[in-house]
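Chapter review: from sequence to fold.
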Amino acid sequence: MDIPGNVVELKSLTEETMERHILSLGGKKFSHKQILKWIYHRDSRDIDSWTDISRALRQKIMETSTILTLKPEKVTVSSTGTRKYKFRLHDGNCIESVLIPDGKRLTACLSTQVGCRMACGFCATGKAGLLRNLSAAEIIEQLMAMTRHVIENPPEPETFAIAQSMGRGARYLDSDHTDSAIAKDSFIDDDIDGSVDISESNENGANEPADETEPGYERKISHIVIMGMGEPFDNADSLGDAIAMMKSIFGLQYASRRITVSTCGHVRGMDRFAGRGIDLLLAVSVGSPFDDERASIMPVGRKWSISELLDAIRRFPHPPREKVTFEYTLIKDFNDSPDHARALGKMARSVKGKINLIRMNPHPGSSHLPPSEERIEAFQSILLQMRIVTTLRKSLGQDIAAACGMLGLEDVLNFRDGKKTNG
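The C-alpha cell string follows.
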C-alpha cells in the first residue's frame, strides 16, 4: 500500500525535524523528546498509548503521521547461523538485510537502496541497476525489525554474543510484547574491542553472568554495518538522518565505533555526509590500487581517482584513534599479484588505514573467481611484512547468497529474466 504524500513518516525525522513537526502541531518544546522515546526506546507504534502526550496532540499526530513497521517476508538461515531477511516495501519493491553472529558480536548489515547504480564487477546487487533510494525510516526500521525477530527467535547461544542494550539500560519484554527500559548504570561493561559483557552484580558487588534463560531476557544487536544493497553515500541525506537517530540519546543510542559505513568511493556523497559532522567507522572498497584497473571493474573510478578518494578519506570525520578500513576483494588473475599487494599497502599507509581482504564470492552472471588459498596467503603476507594491519574476512552466509556482494541476487536474476519477484 502506498503511503500518502502528505503523511509524515516519523522514523524519517531527526531530533531537529521531529521538534519542528511537533511544534507545528501545537506540541510543547519538549514533546518531541517524549515521542522519540516512545518510538525508539519502547518501540511503540500505538500512538494512542503515549500517555504522557496530551490527547489533543496524539490525535493530531495520528491524523498527520505514520510509523513504519517492516516484517520479514522471508528469513533464510545459513549453516553458520547467519540470517538473511527479505523485506517487502510499501511499493512492492524488496530489500535484503543480514544478521551475522560472530564471537561476542551480533552484527546487522543494512541496505540503503533498492538495487545499486554503481555496477561494480564483483557485486551481484548492481546488475539490476538502481530502482530507488530508501528513506531514513526504511533504513533504520531494518535494524528495528531484525531486533524484534531476534527477541522472538534468539540465535543459539554458541553462535552469538549477548549484545548491548539500548543505551545504559536493560530491556525486557512483557507478555504482550510491549517493552520497558530498566535503567541500570552498571549493567553493561564495554570491552576494549567493542564487544560487550552483560552482567549483574550480586549482593557483594561482584559481577555474575546474567541469567540467559530468565523469561523475557533480550539478546540485542551489538554492531551495525551499512554495506547491504546499494551505495550508502549515493543516498547520503537519508543515510545521515537514519544514523543520526541510531546514535541519538533519544534514538537507538549506538556509539560511533559500533557503526560502519562501506562505500565504493562515492566522493561527492562522502563529502556531503561529512558536512553533517556525524562520525562513524568508514570502510572503502578498492577493487585495485591502480586507477586504470579500478575503473575497469568499478565505474566509480572513472569519476574519482584514487588520489581524490584518499583526499576524501582524510576529510571524513572518524572517531578518535580509529582507522579507515580498505576492503579488497581478491579476484583471480586480476588484482592478486605481489605488485598489487605492495601498491595497496602504500595506499593504506598514506591514510593510516588497515586492510580487510575478501575472497571473491562467485555468482551467476560473473566470470570472476577467487584466487587459490596459497595466493591469498602470499598476498596477505606481503601486507603484514609492510606492517599493515591486514585481516581475511570470513565468508559467512555464502550458502544462502548473503555473503559480500551477493545480496539481492534472487531479485537480480528475476530482473534479468524479466520476471516479478513474488517472495
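Two observations follow directly from the output. Residues 93 and 268 are 27 Å apart (CA to CA). The longest helix spans residues 136-152.
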